[in-house]
Amino acid sequence: MRRPPLMPDDGAERPAPDEGPGRRAAGEPLAGAGSGMAAWTAARDVRIPPLAPGMRIGLYGGSFNPPHAAHRAVSLLALKRLRLDKVWWLVTPGNPLKDNGRLPPLGVRLAQARAIANHPALVPTGLEAGLGTRYSFDTVAALVARFPQVHFVWLMGADNLASFHRWQRWRDIAARVPICVVDRQGCTFPAMAAPAALALAPWRREEHEAARLAGMKPPAWLFLHGLKSPLSSTQLRAKRDNSAALSPS
């Protein structure tokens, strides 16, 4: 079927969703990154993870505040169904549209993410702080340009697809890498009726093509079923804050 060309974004800035990594601040120092072992840890955390030509790597972005079991489940599902070699968790340094005063330092969230990931193919990284990228599009563009022989796939939950049209240059993300959307409980219908899903409908692939998605020429995307976790970082933060408020001083 002949598909129409994907129209580029108009470049206008739009607010990013709460958990979506559409806009992110660069250059946040890691906690304790001063000298000695702390400085070495900071350098390691913002370095691009090892990779090689021909690898198939999922890019899963977010604040990971906090990281939780659903992040791991999404990653393992994508790892298996898309036949990926690695899934990089792009832990954002910060978001200028949020109160970053309440956002734990990047180093803290990376340590938490590694404890949750607990798998050799799941790689939490602060590479965006190292690249100095501000938006998800900038990160994608930088990685694709630097590693043209690596097959990157953007991973997101269905809740993020519902607000994807508010991300900075979202069409350009879709034009540079294939996208895998993983279903989430209660998000299926809002996601599929969202402006981005409707705009990208001509390039949607069937779920049985998942194993070939990483090698497809973008734009190409699919909706992956099989995970119905209700967990979200927003809910976990609210629960944590409520518990702290109820605790005696």
From TrEMBL:
Location of the Cytidyltransferase-like domain: 59-238
Pathway entry: Cofactor biosynthesis; NAD(+) biosynthesis; deamido-NAD(+) from nicotinate D-ribonucleotide: step 1/1
Catalysed reaction equations from the record: nicotinate beta-D-ribonucleotide + ATP + H(+) = deamido-NAD(+) + diphosphate
The entry's keywords: ATP-binding, NAD, Nucleotide-binding, Nucleotidyltransferase, Pyridine nucleotide biosynthesis, Transferase
Keyword Transcription regulation annotated: no
Enzyme class: transferase
GO biological process, one term: NAD+ biosynthetic process
InterPro entries: Cyt_trans-like, NadD/NMNAT, Rossmann-like_a/b/a_fold
GO molecular function terms noted in the UniProt entry: ATP binding; nicotinate-nucleotide adenylyltransferase activity
EC numbers: 2.7.7.18
One Pfam family this sequence matches: CTP_transf_like
Domain of life: Bacteria
Keyword Cell division: no
Bias kind Basic and acidic residues: ranges: 11-26
Segments for region (Disordered): 1-33
Job description of the protein: Catalyzes the reversible adenylation of nicotinate mononucleotide (NaMN) to nicotinic acid adenine dinucleotide (NaAD).
Protein family membership: Belongs to the NadD family.
Xref: NCBIfam families: PRK00071.2-2, PRK00071.2-4
Protein name as annotated: Probable nicotinate-nucleotide adenylyltransferase
Organism: Ancylobacter tetraedralis
